[in-house]
TrEMBL record:
Species, as recorded: Chlorobium luteolum (strain DSM 273 / BCRC 81028 / 2530)
Name of the molecule in the record: Elongator protein 3/MiaB/NifB
Record flagged with keyword Cell membrane: no
Radical SAM core domain location: 195-415
Single annotated GO MF: 4 iron, 4 sulfur cluster binding
Transmembrane segments: none
A GO CC term assigned to this protein in UniProt: cytosol
Length: 471
C-alpha cells in the first residue's frame, strides 16, 4: 500500500525524548504543509428491505464530529449517500478516504474502501462494525479506527502528515468529553439535499453505558467508562442552535447511550434545560423513571418523547440478556408517570429469544394496548458482532450476511418455537398494533403531531408485510 510521503518526516516518538508534546509535533507538521491534504468523509447508505436510511434521515452526528476535528488541519469534503449524494468513482482529488460503517452497511463501506485502495488512497474505516471486527475490516482499508477518533486523533493526524500509517488506531485511554470540539453542522448542511435531514438536531451530553446488556456493542467500545460534558457546554450548544435557527423551541435529540445513568447530572441538566425553552427526546434506561419527580422534571424541561427498551414481557428473557434495569412490576408505573407529564413513548420490543413462545406476542400486544404506547417498535433479536451475545449464539446463527443485520431479519431459531411460527406471529403483531382501530385506541386524546403521522405510515407499511421479508 503506497501512501504519499511528507517532505520532512518527524518521528512522534521524539516527544518522549524531549519536552515536545505530541500535540506540538502535530502542529509543527501542520505548519509545514505546502497545501492542506484533502479528506473525503463518507456516510454510506444501507442495503436492506426495511425502512432504513429512506425518506427523512437523522443528521450523522458522529461523522459531523469527525469532520469538525479533521477540518482543523485538512480540507474536508462531506458526502452523505442517504441524501441521494453520489460517491465518486474517481478518488484522485483526495488524499484520504474515510468511511463510517455499522453492520448493515459494512459491505457497502468495504466496497468503497477496496475501490479507493486500488486508486492508491489512504483509506480509513471507522464506526461500530470496523471496531467490533477490526481484523475483517483491515483487509478493506489502510487503517481501522477503533472506537472514537477524538481519543487517537493526534497520533492519527501525525501519521497522515508523515505518510506512515498504522493498521489499527486504538486509544489507551479515552479523552474527556469537555476537550472535544463543538460539532460544526455546516459540513452536513452544505448539501443541496440537506432538507432531507430530520428537523431534530442531534446532541451529545454523555458517552458510555456501564450497565452491560450482553446484546449491546457499547460496553465493548467504551468498557465501563461513563463520561459526560460539563453542563454549561451542553447548554451553550443548545443556545448556539437557537441562535443559528433564530427560534427558541428547537427540537433536540440526544444521541447518548444512557443519558440518565448518573441521576444527579441528568436532573441538573433537565433543570437548566427547563429555563431555555427547547423540546427534546432521548433513549433512556428505565432504572429510575418509576420516580414521579423524574417524569415531572422531564416534562417541564421540554421532553416530548422518550425511547425505552422494554425488550420483553418475560422476566427470564430480561435476566438472560442482563437487562437488570428493567423490572416488569415497574413497567406500568413508568408509562403512567410519563403520560401524566405529556411525554410520549417510543417502546422497543424484541422477539426471537429462546424463552419466547406464542404467548409472548399476546402479552406484548395486551401491554401496548392497555398502556397506550404511542409508537411501538418491533425487532428480531440480532446478535451483533463483538458482543457477548454474538459469541454465545454464533454456532446457531443462520448467516453472516451483514446487509441483513438490521434487527429485521431472522438470525437463529429460538428454542421455544420454530422459525416459521416466530415470523408468522411477528408479522401478525405488527399488523394488529397498527390497524386503524388500534391506532385510534392508543392515540385518542394525544396531541396531533409527528407521532400520529408515524403511526399512519406504519399502518401502510405493516399491511404489506409477509414472513418471507424477514428471511
Amino acid at each position: 500500500m503506497q501512501t504519499e510521503q511528507a517532505e520532512t518526516f518527524i518521528d512522534p516518538s521524539a516527544a518522549f525524548a524531549t519536552s515536545i508534546s505530541p500535540e506540538d509535533i502535530l502542529q509543527q507538521l501542520a505548519r509545514q504543509q505546502k497545501t492542506r491534504k484533502k479528506w473525503l468523509l463518507i456516510q454510506p447508505k444501507s442495503i436492506t428491505s426495511m425502512m432504513v436510511d429512506s425518506g427523512t434521515v437523522s443528521m450523522p452526528l458522529n461523522l459531523i464530529m469527525v469532520a469538525t476535528l479533521v477540518g482543523q488541519l485538512f480540507e474536508v469534503t462531506f458526502i452523505d449517500e442517504r441524501l441521494g449524494e453520489q460517491i465518486p468513482e474517481d478518488f484522485s482529488p483526495y488524499d484520504v478516504v474515510a468511511i463510517t460503517s455499522r453492520s448493515l452497511n459494512a459491505m457497502k463501506a468495504y466496497g468503497i474502501g477496496d475501490r479507493a485502495l486500488r486508486q492508491g488512497k489512504t483509506v480509513i474505516l471507522g464506526g461500530v462494525h470496523p471496531t467490533m471486527l477490526h481484523e475483517e475490516a483491515a483487509s478493506h482499508c489502510t487503517s481501522v479506527v477503533y472506537g472514537e477518533i477524538e481519543s487517537i486523533w493526534t497520533e492519527l493526524a501525525t501519521d497522515i502528515l508523515n505518510g506512515r500509517m498504522k493498521p489499527l488506531y486504538r486509544a489507551k485511554e479515552l479523552k474527556p468529553m469537555g476537550d472535544m470540539h463543538r460539532p460544526d453542522f455546516s459540513y452536513a448542511l452544505a448539501s443541496k439535499n440537506s432538507k432531507k435531514y430530520s428537523s431534530r438536531i442531534p446532541i451529545l451530553a454523555t458517552k458510555g453505558c456501564p450497565v452491560g446488556c450482553n446484546f449491546c456493542t457499547t460496553p465493548t467500545i467504551y468498557g465501563k467508562n461513563y463520561r459526560y460534558r460539563e453542563l454549561d457546554l451542553v447548554i451553550e450548544e443548545m443556545r448556539y442552535h437557537q441562535e443559528r435557527l433564530q427560534k427558541e423551541k428547537i427540537n433536540l435529540s440526544f444521541m447518548d447511550d444512557n443519558i440518565s445513568f448518573r441521576p444527579k447530572y441528568f436532573m441538573t441538566l433537565l433543570e437548566e434545560m427547563s429555563k431555555i425553552g427547547v423540546r427534546w427526546n432521548a433513549n433512556i434506561s428505565m432504572n429510575f423513571l418509576d420516580k414521579p419527580e423524574v417524569a415531572e422534571l422531564a416534562g417541564r424541561s421540554g421532553c416530548d418523547l422518550l425511547s425505552i427498551g422494554f425488550e420483553s414481557l418475560n422476566p427470564e428473557t430480561l435476566k438472560s440478556v442482563h437487562k437488570g434495569s428493567n423490572r416488569l412490576d415497574n413497567y406500568a408505573k413508568v408509562v403512567d408517570n410519563l403520560h401524566r407529564n405529556g411525554i410520549a413513548i417510543q417502546g422497543y420490543f424484541m422477539f426471537g429469544f429462546d424463552n419466547d413462545t406464542e404467548e409472548s406476542f399476546q402479552l406484548t400486544y395486551d401491554f401496548i394496548m392497555k398502556n397506550r404506547i404511542e409508537f411501538p417498535v418491533f425487532s428480531l433479536v440480532t446478535p451483533f458482532p463483538g458482543t457477548p451475545y454474538f459469541d454465545e449464539m454464533k454456532p446457531r446463527i443462520r448467516h453472516f450476511d451483514w446487509d441483513k443485520y438490521d434487527t429485521y431479519h431472522y438470525m437463529f431459531e429460538p428454542q421455544g418455537m420454530g422459525g416459521e411460527t416466530l415470523l408468522k406471529n411477528f408479522v401478525k403483531l405488527q399488523q394488529e398494533v397498527y390497524k386503524g382501530k388500534a391506532i385510534m385506541r392508543r392515540m385518542q386524546g394525544k396531541p396531533l403531531n409527528w407521532v400520529w403521522l408515524a403511526n399512519f405510515m406504519m399502518n401502510r407499511f405493516t399491511r404489506k408485510l409477509t414472513p418471507e421479508i424477514y428471511l
